[in-house]
Write a structure and sequence with these properties.
The strands form 3 sheets. Strands 4-1-5-9-6-10 form a 6-stranded mixed beta sheet, sandwiched between helices. The radius of gyration is 19 Å and the shape is globular. Helix content is about 30%, strand content about 20%. The chain contains 6 helices and 10 strands. The longest helix has 20 residues. The protein is of the alpha/beta class.
Length: about 230
C-alpha cells in the first residue's frame, strides 16, 4: 500500500513544526520511520512544497518524487486536493487501490497502530478507514453563541438540545489525524473520506496527540522522553 505524508512548509501555529527537533529528531521522522517499518506499506511518499522538508524526508528514507504546487500549499488549500494530486502524479495504477495518509503532526502513532489499522480495514472489507479518539465530552454538550450574544445548545443527536448526564449520552469520536485509508474514486467523485463502509480505528488520547501549538509539542516531547526512560529501565 502507498503511504502519503502531507507536510507543507507554512505553519501559523508553530512555524517550521514538521522538521522541528522533537526529542532528538525532526517531527516528520517519527511518521516516516513508523510507515517504513510496516510490511504492508511498499512506498512512503512525502508531499511537500518545501525543499528543506524534502531533504530531511529523504534522509529518513521517504521518497519525494515531486514538490507540491504553491496553490496546494496555502492555508486555504483542500487536503483532498493534495491527496488527489499526489496519487495522480504517481500514475493510474495507484488510482485503482486504497492508499494511506499519515499526518506528520501525530508522532506518537507507531508502526503497530498502522499495522492494526490495516488489518482492521482488510478484515472488515471496508472502503475507507479513519483513526479516531474518544471525544472529551458528548456532542450534546456543545454550545454556540447567537447574534445577540446568548448561549444556545447545538443539541447534536438530541431533540430540542436537552442536556443529559454524560452517562446518558452516546460516546462520540473525533478524527485524530493519525491514520487514514482512503479510496481515490470516492475522493474524486464525492470529495469525502466517509461512506457506509468507513471503519473506525480507535486510539487512546496519549497516542492521538496532534501537534498544532507549542503546548502540544512540549506534551508530545514529554511522552516520548517518558517512554524512552521507561524502556531504559528494563
Amino acid at each position: 500500500m502507498l503511504a502519503i505524508i502531507p507536510a507543507r512548509g507554512g505553519s501559523k501555529g508553530l512555524p517550521g513544526k514538521n522538521i522541528k527537533n522533537l526529542d532528538g529528531k525532526p517531527l516528520i521522522a517519527y511518521t516516516i520511520e513508523a510507515a517504513r517499518s510496516c510490511e504492508r506499506i511498499d512506498r512512503v511518499i512525502v508531499s511537500t512544497d518545501d525543499a528543506k522538508i524534502a531533504e530531511i524526508s529523504r534522509e529518513y528514507g521517504a521518497e519525494v518524487p515531486f514538490l507540491r504546487e504553491e496553490k496546494l500549499a496555502s492555508d486555504s488549500a483542500s487536503a483532498i486536493d493534495v491527496y488527489l494530486d499526489a496519487v495522480e502524479r504517481l500514475g493510474v495504477a495507484y488510482q485503482k487501490r486504497p492508499f494511506m495518509v499519515l499526518l506528520p503532526t501525530v508522532p506518537l502513532r507507531t508502526s503497530r497502530h498502522i499495522e492494526e489499522a490495516y488489518a482492521l480495514f482488510d478484515r472488515e472489507k471496508a472502503k475507507t478507514l479513519i483513526s479516531v479518539v474518544r471525544a472529551d465530552v458528548p456532542a450534546s454538550w456543545y454550545l454556540s453563541v447567537n447574534r445577540e450574544g446568548f448561549l444556545y445548545s447545538e443539541g447534536y443527536g438530541l431533540e430540542n438540545g436537552n442536556v443529559h448526564n454524560r452517562q446518558d449520552n452516546k460516546t462520540s469520536y473525533i478524527p485524530n489525524g493519525a491514520i487514514y485509508i482512503l479510496d481515490y474514486n470516492l475522493l474524486k467523485e464525492k470529495r469525502t473520506y466517509y461512506c457506509e463502509r468507513t471503519v473506525p480505528y480507535i486510539m487512546n488520547r496519549t497516542e492521538s496527540v496532534d501537534i498544532d501549538t507549542w503546548e502540544d509539542f512540549e506534551y508530545a516531547e514529554y511522552i516520548l522522553q517518558k517512554r524512552r526512560h521507561k524502556a531504559g529501565e528494563k
